[in-house]
Amino acid sequence: MLVPGRFSAAVSVSTEEDTVRAVTQAVAALEAAGGGQGDLLVAFFTGHHSPRAKEISRVVRAALAPDSLIGCSAAGVIGAGREIEEGPGLVLWAARLPGARVQAFRLEFENTGEGGMVHGWPEAGDGASAALMVDPFSFPLDPFLSSLRELSPIPRIVGGVASSGRRPGANRLLYEEEVVTGGAVGVVVDGPAVLEPLVSQGCRPIGPEFRITRSERNVIYELDGEPAFQALSRIFEDLDEESSAAFRSAPQVGLAAVRSSGDLGSEGYLIRGVVGIDRESGAIAISDAAPEEMRVRFHARDGASAHEDLGNLLGLASGLYPDAAGGLLFTCTGRGESMFGRPDHDAELAGTYFPDLPIAGMFAAGEIGSVCGLPYIHGFSASLGLLRERVE
Which contiguous run of DSSP H or E holds residue 143? Predict the structure, then answer.
């Protein structure tokens, strides 16, 4: 619950079908937890409520009067230990951050004919952190994050891609009193407040680390001087049946990160998918650039690996940040019950290590999180931003 004079957060959930009843119910529950007059309010709602997103904004602002309001529509929402993957759902998350600077923002992409420009990125001081929610049809997220990786300082970033709509204009983003159908919205927190990014990429390494000795763009031709497929084939000789099956069903490669800032969960690798193998030439294609001299390691992903990886991450984080006030969780639409065979997996696991911590979030069509200090978009991952007070 919200406690005056210290960092705190509160969360409420409604599965009411009628949008006005749902937001009224969620607001009442948040008010009961002391969630009015907060510095920041974040709303997550399923596509069922998208046509009446303006009502969500209106009721929330009138009843709770948050200083900053952002929100996003999604295929499923997360709150208070629950993952609502089917049916209507609405989650409200409020935070009180005494002494912190909180800036809600909206990003718009302008096509200039020479690559385009993004307008609206706020000033972010050294040590700032941000939550970002993006419409996939109107905002070039990957190039934008690539440009951010060139900045210094780079804010810590967590977030996700709106997932409720399958065509342009179908998603809804909330920014203060506005409801928009494109671009991106977010919030930057600065000063004593931190959204600590934790990224669980849900994989386990298999085989040794290699060095790329010949490549072109996203195609790896040689690893340690031998054809890439030949190096991969040697790994399979030592794999047990379970690991072999996991890799064959969802082959991944970890790219060694170039910067380290102590981010939890990255283990120094950025996980990308294997998208093609040419046995004749020995080439392996991946879903990102593969520059020569980069170190790589193959990885496998399945439900058991994802469970173990997230559990290890949360266990470490609970020891480092026992006084966290809340969290924002962005998990892939490919996780949930389809990956783990049961509902509420990520939310319940987070609650195991952070009992009663107010966590809210959404199922995303791409998760945003920092790996070794650099922001990337991920797939089949869980990106958690832990709200904590900065310790000097």
Answer: helix 141-148
Per-residue pLDDT 10s for the chain (392 aa) are 444 458 999 999 999 999 999 999 999 999 998 766 789 999 999 999 999 999 999 999 999 999 999 999 999 999 999 999 999 999 999 999 999 999 999 999 998 877 789 999 998 778 899 999 999 999 999 999 999 988 877 888 999 999 999 999 999 999 999 999 999 999 999 999 999 999 999 898 998 999 999 999 999 999 999 999 999 998 888 888 888 888 888 899 999 875 545 565 556 789 999 999 999 999 999 999 999 999 999 999 889 989 999 999 999 999 999 999 999 999 999 999 999 999 999 999 999 999 999 999 999 999 999 888 889 999 999 999 999 998 76
Tokens of 9: 């957060």
Phi, psi of 298 (to 5 degrees): -75, 150
Residue type for position 360: A
Instruction: Provide the residue count of the chain.
Output: 392
Name every residue whose Cβ is closer than 8 Å to that of residue 157 and which is 6 or more positions away in sequence: 129, 130, 131, 132, 145, 148, 197, 368, 369, 370, 375
Residue 94 vs residues 38, 50, 88: alpha-carbon distances, Å? 6, 20, 21
Output the six-digit token pair for 269: 């690798």
Asked whether the beta carbons of 341 and 163 are under 8 A apart, the reply is: no
Number of Cβ within 10 Å of residue 256's Cβ equals 15
Domain coordinates in residue numbering, the chain: 8-200+306-389, 204-300
Contacts of 146 (CB under 8 A, 6+ apart): none
- Dihedral of CA 148/151/154/155: which sign? negative
Give the integer Cα–Cα distance in Å for 351 and 332: 18
List the one residue out of 362, 349, 310, 271 whose CA is nearest residue 84: 362
CA distance 281 to 285: 12
| CB-CB contact of 195 with 386 (8 Å) | yes
CA pseudo-torsion sign 95, 45, 180, 19? negative
| Chain-centre distance for alpha carbon 165 | 18
